[in-house]
């Protein structure tokens, strides 16, 4: 099973990419794990026409090939004004059923505070209808993200340590609990990826009559 992690921050470096790096390291259930940091690629603004994806400067053909290979996805977004980022929503509009239909996706929101629920609600409500990604019941909200999932060797971690002198016991407990929750979420995502691979096989080899008439969700 292959995992694709997509971080949707529109700037670099970012806490979203940091979280993606951690998830890549601990997602050992999957045979391959790849990370796409969207802001490092050129994605045209989706105008509803297929031609816009294949513009001469577009990175979409490269990304599309990586998406097609994946058996499961993780989408990571910072919370911007209570919303997922425009670059991630544009990415999801560009994804079509041939690339992502009936593949499980774990939704992850990161925020340097205590909110973070709104992007998850937004993505569940209106980001998965036509591409037919399947959001798993679990999701992750990484609150106070600058304090979480830090490598002691990272520049961000050194900055935090310099500012606070030491990591508080409360922060350490929250970090440990978050890591345990991540391990569970990845375990479940892997289970869904195995189960849904059978559905995709059936969908391809034993299609429902005239199934293309129902390509758009309700």
UniProtKB/TrEMBL annotation:
Residue span, NADPH-dependent FMN reductase-like domain: 1-144
GO molecular function: FMN binding; oxidoreductase activity
Protein's UniProt keywords contain Transmembrane helix: no
Cellular component terms per the entry's GO annotation: cytosol
Alphabetical keyword list: Flavoprotein, FMN
InterPro entries recorded: Flavoprotein-like_sf (IPR029039), FMN_Rdtase-like_dom (IPR005025), NAD(P)H-dep_reductase (IPR050712)
Record has Transcription as a keyword: no
PANTHER family, sorted: CHROMATE REDUCTASE, NADPH-DEPENDENT AZOREDUCTASE AZR
Protein name: NAD(P)H-dependent oxidoreductase
Lineage: Bacteria, Pseudomonadati, Pseudomonadota, Gammaproteobacteria, Alteromonadales
């Amino acid at each position: 099973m292959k995992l694709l992690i997509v971080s949707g921050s529109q700037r670099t470096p970012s806490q979203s990419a940091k979280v993606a790096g951690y998830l890549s390291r601990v997602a050992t259930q999957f045979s391959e794990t790849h990370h796409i940091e969207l802001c490092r690629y050129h994605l045209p603004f989706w105008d509803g026409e297929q031609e816009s994806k294949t513009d001469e400067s577009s990175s979409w053909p490269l990304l599309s090939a990586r998406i097609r290979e994946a058996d499961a996805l993780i989408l990571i977004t910072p919370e911007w004004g209570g919303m997922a980022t425009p670059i991630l929503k544009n990415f999801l509009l560009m994804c079509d059923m041939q690339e992502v239909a009936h593949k499980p996706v774990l939704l992850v929101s990161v925020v340097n505070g205590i909110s973070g629920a709104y992007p998850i609600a937004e993505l569940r409500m209106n980001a998965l209808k036509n591409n037919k990604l399947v959001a798993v019941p679990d999701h992750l909200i990484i609150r106070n993200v600058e304090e979480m999932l830090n490598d002691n060797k990272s520049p961000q971690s050194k900055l935090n340590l310099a500012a606070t002198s030491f990591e508080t016991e409360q922060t350490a407990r929250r970090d440990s609990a978050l890591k345990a929750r991540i391990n569970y979420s990845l375990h479940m995502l892997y289970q869904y990826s195995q189960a849904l691979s059978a559905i995709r096989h059936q969908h391809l080899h034993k299609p429902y009559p005239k199934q293309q008439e129902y390509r758009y969700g309700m």
